[in-house]
Amino acid sequence: MNKIPTPPLAGKRALVTGAARGIGAAIALKLAEDGADVAITYEKSARKADALVAEMRGMGRKAIAIQADAASQEAARAAVERNAAELGGLDILINNAGVLFAGDFSSQPLDEIDLQLNVNVRGVFLITQAALKHIPNGGRIISTGSNAGLAVPFAGIAVYAATKSALESFTRGLARELVRGTLPSILSGLAQSTPT
Q1: Which of 73-87, 153-167, 172-186 shows the lowest mean pLDDT across its residues?
Q2: 191 occurs within a structural domain
């Protein structure tokens, strides 16, 4: 009699920010395929978030969608607390929410600059800080980075590149503080998407 292998993330609980579509949705699906129960956050794409949750539940996983402003401290805390309450804890945090406005920095509107800083940097700080109260030793915090944070590949993304560079430094600094596991920053190329 062949024994069915246990999925590698069976029993783990994950939270993926900005995951109603694009890279975040793909990450959430892979976590569920590998056995994790998954909560996702989204800002605007409720139908896509609900469809993703239904797909993960169809795999036999617990899954929830949480509407959250990625730059809000209150929303970050609420998302983490809901994740922990409904899924029974938190083992894996994937910081995926991000925004990019391309354009000449000399004329870039302040609201576009602020939103990139608030979502791509401040938002990661806020949700990571909230999650650290729940993630046990051996848990994981993973942030989606960008090649733009290492070597700006083209003009028009100065602010975005700065935010991703800050994320790289934050990830390295946090890894020195924690003993609860590795904190890699995943480098990704550009992916066309709209805010979740």
Answers
A1: 172-186
A2: no
Reply yes or no on whether 146 is catalytic: yes
Q: Is residue 5 part of a domain?
A: no
The span from the CA of 138 to the CA of 37, in Å, is: 17
Q: What's the whole-number mean pLDDT along residues 37-63?
A: 98
Q: Which of 12, 45, 48, 160 is catalytic?
A: 160
Residue 26 lies in a domain: yes
CATH number at residue 21: 3.40.50.720
Sort strands 185-186 and 13-16 into parallel, antiparallel or unpaired: unpaired
Catalytic status, residue 44: no
Instruction: Write down the pLDDT at residue 195.
Output: 53
CA–CA dist 177, 33 (Å, integer): 31
Residue 42 appears among annotated catalytic residues = no
Domain count, the chain: 1
Q: What is the pLDDT of residues 16-37, one digit of tens each?
A: 999 999 999 999 999 999 999 9
Q: Taking 70 as the threshold, does the pLDDT of residue 160 lie above it?
A: yes
**Catalytically annotated residue among 146, 165, 188, 193:** 146
| 48 located within any domain | yes
Catalytic site residue from 12, 45, 48, 164:
164
* 131 touches 93 (CB < 8 A): yes
